[in-house]
Amino acid sequence: MSTQECALIHLTLFKHSAKSFLAALDEAGIPHGPVHMFSSAPQNSGLVEAIAALSDAMPWNAIAKIVVAWIEARKSREVIIYTEAGESFHAKGYSASEVQKLLRISTNVTVIDTKPVDEQ
């Protein structure tokens, strides 16, 4: 029996971020899947995806590099990482190694692109 823990990165994608961010994960070969949430109360309008793996198998470095490259590709993009301690970090300006450390302690990652892909 394995004693490894399962690691989960919970992504909430808003506005025009879903198509391009999920495509970046796909290009890197990082599996992800939708999270279906059911509630009797109104919920946010973001698309929710998750990346799950055994903690030793989670591609932390690859995901961090995708986050940094995705943000740097357009000025309209932002990634906010929320931690277990209740802190939030805007990933813009952070290095991949810094983002990797934050992802390991994240409870949710919000991905936002305020402009459609066909707009600069």
TrEMBL record:
Name this protein carries in UniProt: Uncharacterized protein
Source organism (scientific name): Pseudomonas donghuensis
